[in-house]
Amino acid sequence: MAGRPSRHEVFRRLDEAMAELHHRLGGLPVPAEAEGIWTAMWHQDAHHSTAIEGNTLVLGQVERLLEDGVAVGNLGFREYVEVRSYADAAQWVYGQAREASSWADSQLITLTEVRQIHEMAIGLVWRVSPHPNATDRERPGGFREHDIRTFPGGMTPPPWTDVPAEIRRWIDRVNAKPAHRHLMEHVAAGHADFERIHPFLDGNGRTGRLVLNLVLVRLGYAPAIIYRRDRDRYLRSLRRADAGDASPLGELIARSVLDNLYRFVLPAVAGPHRLVPLPALATKNLTEGALRVAANRGRLRAQKGVDGKWRSTKTWVGDYADTRHRRQN
């Protein structure tokens, strides 16, 4: 059995996938051009990024909340608001893919955008349950005016008085071109630096992952989704980056970006009878969630791999769409 690909192999595959994406599609499709794929990523991003912070909604509940506005289950109101608020911010971030840029054209991110993302990511939550120790200036979008205690692993964020200067230096580093390392290691170092600065009183993890994805989509890459199952590995990688080695975090981000790039590339290269993951077959009218339900119920011809993921073909999905339409009439 083939072993897990090395970090350098992952970087190589990512570079090849990016080349294939540009060859086949001219670059990353904007959300309106591949709505089903972007929607599936949006659902998963909102679910997993909030789950890392302790939110207990399952993916199906997140999909119903975001697609239909229905709060399924009997959880606390704050949990639904956390997901909705994060999803609104993620939707804005993904929308920036239409403005894919380069270092030669403009800055990848500005201080105003960092504040804006934080305000979107926790604004609704703040209205429901504001931080009990916050000053008026520490509202969503405002930097913290409290010091943060040392994190497990020994990292201590800078004093709050240093945050404005630290975040401006961080902006400069992120917008600088990487020297002698892969781009994924550069963005990983930037992500770890953001979390080390911890510029806000609350919501730094969610905001940092959204900021990371804004940089990625503006560079023409797919977003990175850090899955809840990888939480411990993610936190260990952040600690390694704090110690000066961003390579493990760069690899984790690269693997996620590569998986999401394949969602766009596979439909372009696959024939009608090739098995591909369901997210690559999703459309506006047949979301990944709908396809997954149909596969589980035996209504969509599909195969479940040893990894637990369903795969189907363009032909099988077309057949299901035709019969599904007839049943509805």
Describe the structure.
- The chain is globular and about 65 Å long.
- It has 2 domains: 7-269, Fido-like domain (Fic-like fold); 276-328, no CATH class.
- It has a 3-stranded antiparallel β-sheet with strand order 1-3-2.
- The chain has 12 helices and 3 strands.
- Helices cover 57% and strands 2% of the residues.
- Helix 7 (183-197) crosses helix 9.
- The model has no long low-confidence stretch (mean pLDDT 89).
- It has helices spanning 7-25, 35-52, 59-68, 77-95, 111-128, 163-175, 183-197, 204-218, 231-242, 247-269, 288-296, 314-328, and strands at residues 276-277, 303-304, 310-312.
- It is an all-alpha fold.
Question: Any key phrases for this structure?
Answer:
mainly alpha, 12 helices, globular, 57% helix, three-stranded antiparallel sheet, 329 residues, Fic-like fold, 2 domains
Topology diagram in text:
Blueprint lengths: L6 H19 L9 H18 L6 H10 L8 H19 L15 H18 L34 H13 L7 H15 L6 H15 L12 H12 L4 H23 L6 E2 L10 H9 L6 E2 L5 E3 L1 H15 L1
Antiparallel strand pairs: 1-3, 2-3
Q: In summary, what is this structure?
A:
By secondary structure, the protein is mainly α. Helix content is 57%, strand content 2%. A hairpin with a 5-residue loop joins β2 (303-304) and β3 (310-312).
Q: How many DSSP helices?
A: 12
Beta-strand percentage range: under 5%
The percent of residues in helical segments reads: 55-70%
Q: Looking at this structure, what is the CATH superfamily of the largest domain?
A: Fido-like domain
CATH topology of the largest domain: Fic-like fold
Helix-strand string: HHHHHHHHHHEHEEH
The assigned CATH architecture of the largest domain is: Orthogonal Bundle
User: What distance separates the N and C termini?
Assistant: 48 Å
Largest sheet: 3 strands, antiparallel
* Low-pLDDT ranges: none
Integer count of domains: 2
Mean pLDDT equals 89
- Shape, per Cα inertia axes: globular
Radius of gyration: 20 Å
| Major sheet: arrangement of strands | 1-3-2
* CATH class (first level) name of the largest domain: Mainly Alpha
